[in-house]
Amino acid sequence: MAASVRTLALRALSDSIRNIHHVSRCRIKHLCCRAAITGCRGYSDSTEGRSTHFGFQTVPEEEKAEKVYKVFENVAKKYDVMNDAMSLGIHRLWKDTLLHTMNPQPGLRLLDTAGGTGDISFRFLEYTRSMYDRQQRLRAKSHQTPSWQDIADHYVSDKAGSPQSRAVVCDINKEMLKVGKQRAEKAGITTGLSWVVGDAEELPFDDDQFDIYTIAFGIRNVTHIEQALQEALRVLKPGGRFMCLEFSKVTNPLLTRLYDAYSFQMIPVLGEVIAGDWKSYQYLVESIRKFPDQETFKEMIEDAGFFCVQYFNLTGGIVAIHSGFKL
Amino acid sequence: MSHALRTLATGVFSVQRSVTVLSLLRPVSAVKIRGQQRSRSDGVKDRETQPFDESLLEFLVCPLSKKPLRYDERSNELINEELGIAYPIIDGIPNMIPQDARMIHKSKATENPSES
């Protein structure tokens, strides 16, 4: 279905190659078809003037992407500081857990969508490099005393670093990527890291390219989540892993009350004090409440075509890691 | 005598004025030159320290047609010949959002119409 619509679009394109309007119309029809098929879970059912949620507000779909863009444009410079302040540094543990769950071997290719300032990619490269070093050390230990030739070969091969572990950070927001790139330069990470401005719903990557696809704290900001999941399925290699780290529903009722109080009372205040932006952090907190819970999201991932979908709750369900495989 | 004094005074004033104007001009032009130099050196630095990573082209495609792109060094853009659009590369980061792409042959539209 999707393929035929796409070929239709391309044919229309070749007929009138200068008329880009045609393509956009076809793609919007394509979007509507797909959304209708999947049933637009969680979104308004009105067929005309389709609207979606932006935090607790209801906005037309076209506006959501723009509003989200503005939110992150405003917070880009203080993003990392605010993350530490709001989560009391626990976000680092969440991201580390994601990496440990992922357990990437050296030589893999990662697509870090909504990667923003590059937290996941940095951790990925560090993890694979230290794993590579550990493997080398184990290999060296098991060998007998190496000859000088072996040592020389080892040094030569080692210059390339870990065998081409590659991380591509993709984000819709240039400002976040700029901040991330500066961080990378400061940390001295140059090889194996690339930055691309792109839309998670329309990834500028070829099919079957990546071993691992991650989206950390980004998928709730996407207007059409099903589309982002479809794109993830497309760009992953067969056997590739989809991993999503996202805020989710808290399982413990007592913790829920504390968490809600903290979210709605503390976080916008922190946002105002540190980043000078109350509204963006109000949006953040509201968007967490609007995101589907663990089971619903698991079903959405399964519907997109992933297998062996499972989720792990972290910190009592405040955050969940969803994982699926493309087979 | 007064006439002479007057001409002297105006002469001095005009000299002073021209001196002040000149003194104002000099730092302005210096800043402008320095700014230009900085931008030029930044431009060179951009091109040297932040070049576009061509190995990305292995898997980078046009988000609309999913076809491979051509890297144009002169205009620092990624070009999709088929659709006639060019994606800019800023600070070595390619911008693959269709709305920000530039149409090549029709000069009246500088941006593609928005997609969704």
TrEMBL record, chain A:
Pathway: Cofactor biosynthesis; ubiquinone biosynthesis. This is 2-methoxy-6-polyprenyl-1,4-benzoquinol methylase, mitochondrial. GO terms for biological process: methylation. NCBIfam families: MenG_MenH_UbiE (TIGR01934). Methyltransferase required for the conversion of 2-polyprenyl-6-methoxy-1,4-benzoquinol (DDMQH2) to 2-polyprenyl-3-methyl-6-methoxy-1,4-benzoquinol (DMQH2). CDD domains: AdoMet_MTases. It catalyses: a 2-methoxy-6-(all-trans-polyprenyl)benzene-1,4-diol + S-adenosyl-L-methionine = a 5-methoxy-2-methyl-3-(all-trans-polyprenyl)benzene-1,4-diol + S-adenosyl-L-homocysteine + H(+). It comes from Carassius auratus (Goldfish). Keywords: Membrane, Methyltransferase, Mitochondrion, Mitochondrion inner membrane, S-adenosyl-L-methionine, Transferase, Ubiquinone biosynthesis. The keyword Mitochondrion applies. SUPFAM superfamilies: S-adenosyl-L-methionine-dependent methyltransferases.
From TrEMBL, chain B:
Keywords: Mitochondrion, Transit peptide. It holds the Pfam family Trm112p. The keyword GTP-binding does not apply. The keyword Mitochondrion applies. GO terms for cellular component: mitochondrion. Belongs to the PREY family. Gene3D superfamilies: 2.20.25.10. This is Protein preY, mitochondrial. HAMAP family: UPF0434. It is found in: Mitochondrion. The gene is pyurf.
